[in-house]
Amino acid sequence: MTDLLAPSADERIPLKQFTEKAYLDYSMYVILDRALPHVGDGLKPVQRRIIYAMSELGLKASAKYKKSARTVGDVIGKFHPHGDSAAYEAMVLMAQPFSFRYPLIDGQGNWGSQDDPKSFAAMRYTEAKLTPFSEVLLSELAQGTVDWQPNFDGTIEEPRVLPARVPTVLLNGTTGIAVGMATDIPPHNLREVVAATVHLLENPKATPAELCQFVLGPDMPTDAEIITPRAELVRIYETGRGSVKMRAKWIKEEGDIVITALPHQVSGAKILEQIAAQMQAKKLPMVADLRDESDHENPTRLVIVPRSNRIDVDALMNHLFATTELERSYRVNINLIGNDGKPGVKNLAELLTEWLVFRMETVRRRLQHRLDWVDRRLHLLDGMLIAYLNLDEVIHIIRTEDHPKEKLMARFGLSEDQANYILDTRLRQLARLEEMKIRGEQEELAKEKADLEATLASERRMKTLVRKELEATAKEFGDDRRSPLVERAEAQAFSETELLPSEPVTVVLSEKGWIRSAKGHDIDPHSLSYKAGDQFAFLARGKSQQTVLLLDSTGRSYSIPAHSLPSARGQGEPVTSRLNPPSGATFMGVLMGEDSQPILLATDAGYGFVATLGDMQSKNRSGKTLLTVPEGARVLPPAIIQDVSTTQLVAVTNDGRMLVFPVTELPVLAKGKGNKIIGIQTSRLETREEYMVAVVPLTEGQTVKIWCGKRSLQLRLKDMAHYMGERGRRGHKLPQGFQRVDRIELID
Asked: How far apart are CA 125 and CA 109, in angstroms?
C-alpha cells in the first residue's frame, strides 16, 4: 500500500527547482493579472472585470442604480475569485472624483471623502452604475474588436482588454506594486493627451520633448498647483521616471490665510493635525488659531489665523510647505504591460505609439467585423429578392415539399443561409412593399461596403478615421486643466532662531566673564547685582532671536544664542560653561546685530580691519581665530560701524598722538591682522612705551571725549581738521596737558 502512494521517480523534482518555478509563476501572475495596467485600456484586471460585469448587468449611464453588492457578487462569482472587500475597494476607487480624474463609476450613497477616502459605506448600502465616460471603453466591445478568454472556471468568456477609444492609461493614472517592480502613473488631461496622440499619428517620429508641447504635465483631480520645473517634467516624459511636486493653493482673506486646494490624496484633517502638532511643540509662535470651514460649497477651506498682521504670511506658508503635506511629491514610474504582454517602463512617445498600434488594430477589427456583417446581409438580401421575384413558386414549394429547404436551394441556386432566412421570414413581411425596402437596403449596404473596403485598404483613411474619433471623444468628454503648472521657489522651513519671538534684549557681560540677558533696551547695567569683587564690563543690545558674539584677548570669536542666556534677574552664568576659551584669555567685547553689520577690529599695535558680524559667527565651543595679535600687542574692544561711507576713524596713542582718516581706507577682511591704522614703533610697543589706546568710529553729530587723568577734552569732527591725515601716519600731538591719554569715550 505504501508503495502505491509513493511518488514515482519521474514525479520527483528537486526542491530548488520546484520553489524557483512556483515563485516565478506567482511573480508573473501578480505582474500580469493583478498589479500592472495594460497599455490598451489602462486598467488592471480587477478594474476591467468590474466594468465588464456592470455592463453585462445593464448598468449603463442611462440605467437605474443597483446595489453595489450585486455588482461585487457578479465580479467575484464570475470573473475575479478574490475577496469581496478587495473588489469593492477597487470599485470605490473608480467612483471617487477625488481619486480618478475621469471616474468610470457613478456612485450613489457614501463613497468616501477627500479627508478620508476609506470612509465609504459598506456595499450593501451603496448603489452604482457606469458613468457616460465608461462608454469610451465599452462602446465597441460587441463589434469583434477584442480577444476573449475563458473565465477562471471556464464557464463563460471575458475580454482580455477593453477597446478604449482614447489612451485611458494616462487619463486616470494608476499605482501598483508587483514582485520586483511597481507602477506609478499620474492622471492627465484628456484634451492634452488626445492632442499629443493626434500629433504622433501624423508625425510617427515625434520625440517625447515634442509631445510635451501638448502634454504639459500631469493633471490631478484637485486644483492644487504643480510646481515641478518644466525641464524636469520633460525629463520625466523622456525617461518614464521621475517625481512631480504639488503645492496647496492659498489666498489672504482679511488677514487670515485660507487654503482652498490641497495636493492629490492629501487630507485636510491630516494637515490641521500636523500644524496643530507644531503649535503644541511651540514651533509655530506666529500662528494664533486654526479652523476647518470646509463644506459642500467649499470642499476645501482651511483657515490659519496669524498672531498679528506683522507676520510675514509668505514666509509662514513657505515653512508649512516644507514641514507639512501642503506640499507633496509623487513618484512617476510609467511601467505597464505592452501589446506583447510584457511589462516595461516606457517614455511618452513609446507609450502613445504602442497605444496607436493597439487602436489601429482595434479599428481594423471593428471595420472588418462590420464588413463581414454587411457581406452576410447582402447575401441574405440577394436570396430574399429571388424569393420575392418568384413568390408564388416559393410558397408552392414550402406548402407541398417535405424538405422545402433543399428544394429551394436546388431550384433557385440559394445557399443554406439564404434558404433558412427565407423560411424564417414571417408572412406579414411578404407584402409587395418589402421588395422596395430590400432594394433600398441593398443600395445602402453596397455603398457602406465600398466605403469600408476603401478604408481598410488605405492607411491614410484609417489614420483619418482614428484621428476623427479621438477628436470627437475629446470634444465630448474633455475639460479644462484642473492643476495649474506654476514654477515656485523651493520651500524653506524656519530655522530655530526664526521661530523664536523677536523681542528687544540687552546682554550684559561682567569683568569676570558672567553673562546674562535682560528684556528691553533701557537697562542700566550698573544697577544690576554682581558677584563679590565683580563689576560691569560690556553690554550689547539686540533681539532675542539673534546671536551674541564675543571677542577674547587672543583674537578668537565665539557665538551664543541670545534666547538661551539666563535672565538678568539673577547674576547670570560664567561664559566658560558655554565656551572653551584658551587658558588665561579674557573677553574684550560683546556684539549683537545682523550678520551684514560692519564692525571695526583692531589691536593696540596700531593694526586693524573692517569685518562683519557674520564673520564672527562660530559653531564651535572653542570659537575661531578672527584677529591676529602681533607680539606684545593687546586686543582692543570691537566697535560697530553705522555707515562705512561717512564714518571717520579716530585713533589715539598713549603718548598723546591722534590721527583721523576715513574708515574706507581700511581693508574689509574676514579674518587676519589688518593694515596699519597709526604709526607705532615696534621696539617701543614691546616695552609698552607706545601703543594705541583706542580707535573709535566717529560720525557727524558725535563727540569724542579724551581723558588724561581727571582732565578731559571734547572734540567733534569739525574740530579735527588738524588731525586729518593718511592711514598709517604718526598723527599729530594733542594740546598741552594731554600727553598721557588714559581712555576715550564716544558721546552721541
From this structure: 7
* Integer Cα distance of 496 and 506 in angstroms: 20
Could you tell me which residues come within 8 angstroms of residue 49 by beta carbon, excluding any fewer than 6 positions away?
A: 75, 79, 80, 158
528, 357 contact by CB (below 8 A) = no
- Local structure of residue 734 (DSSP, 8 states): P
Task: Give the pLDDT confidence score for residue 26 in this predicted structure.
Answer: 82
Tell me, what amino acid is at 692?
M
Kindly list the distances between the CA atom of residue 457 and the CA atoms of 370, 450, 452, 700, in Å, as whole numbers in the listed order: 15, 11, 9, 95
Write down the domain spans for the chain.
249-325
Set 88, 125, 237, 691: catalytic member: 125
Query: Which of 5-9, 611-615, 731-735 has the largest mean confidence?
Result: 611-615
Residue found by looking up cell 607680539 in the block? 631
DSSP, res 7: P
Strand pairing partners for 289?
Answer: 305
Residue of 375, 383, 442, 391 whose CA lies nearest to 415: 383
| pLDDT exceeds cutoff 90 at 204 | yes
Q: Which residue has the cell 501598483?
A: 176
3-state secondary structure of 175: strand
* Residue 125 bears catalytic tag: yes
Cα(151)–Cα(640) distance, integer angstroms: 85
Cell of 576: 566658560
294-347: per-residue pLDDT in tens?
Answer: 888 888 999 999 988 888 899 899 999 999 999 999 999 999 999 998 999 999
Q: Within a 13 Å sphere around the CA of 259, how many CA atoms are in the beta-carbon half?
A: 32
DSSP secondary structure string for all residues of 62-82: TS--EEHHHHHHHIIIII--S
- Residue matched to cell numbers 489602462: 42
Q: Give pairs for 319-324: CB < 8 Å, separation 24+.
A: 319/284, 319/491, 319/492, 319/493, 319/494, 320/275, 321/247, 321/248, 321/491, 322/491, 322/492, 322/493, 323/274, 323/278, 323/493, 324/271, 324/274, 324/275
SS (H, E, C) 630-649: CCCCCECCCEECCCCCCCEE
Q: Could you tell me which residues come within 8 angstroms of residue 18 by beta carbon, excluding any fewer than 6 positions away?
A: none
Q: If phi over 0 gives left and psi between -120 and 50 gives alpha, with beta otherwise, what is residue 266? A: beta
Contact 187, 221 (CB under 8 A): yes
653 Cβ neighbours under 8 A, 6+ residues apart = 606, 678, 680, 690, 691, 692, 693, 731, 741
Contact assessment for residue 394 and residue 387, using Cβ atoms and an 8 Å cutoff: yes
Over residues 695-731, the pLDDT tens digits come to: 999 988 889 999 888 888 889 888 888 899 999 999 9
Say which range, 126-135, 228-237, 292-301, has the weakest mean pLDDT: 292-301
C-alpha grid cell, residue 539 = 553690554
Q: Is the dihedral of CA 420, 423, 425, 430 positive or negative?
A: positive
Grid coordinates of 44: 488592471
Phi then psi for 563, rounded to 5 degrees? -70, -15
Q: Say what the pLDDT of residue 631 is.
A: 87
Cα–Cα dist 745/462, whole Å: 95
Residue 690 and residue 680 in contact, taking contact as beta carbons nearer than 8 Å: yes
429: left (phi > 0), else alpha (psi -120 to 50), else beta? alpha
Residue 347 near residue 256 (C-beta atoms within 8 A): no
Say which residue the cell 560683546 belongs to: 590
- The DSSP bridge pattern shows strands 256-261 and 249-253 to be antiparallel
**Cα 5 to Cα 8: distance, rounded to the nearest angstrom:** 9
249-325 maps to which CATH number? 3.30.1360.40
432, burial (CB in 10 Å: exposed 0-12, middle 13-18, buried 19+): exposed
Question: Integer distance in angstroms from the first to the last C-alpha of the chain?
Answer: 116
C-alpha cell read off for 181: 517592480
Q: φ and ψ at 533, to 5 degrees?
A: 85, 0
Record the cell numbers describing residue 115, joined without a space: 479627508
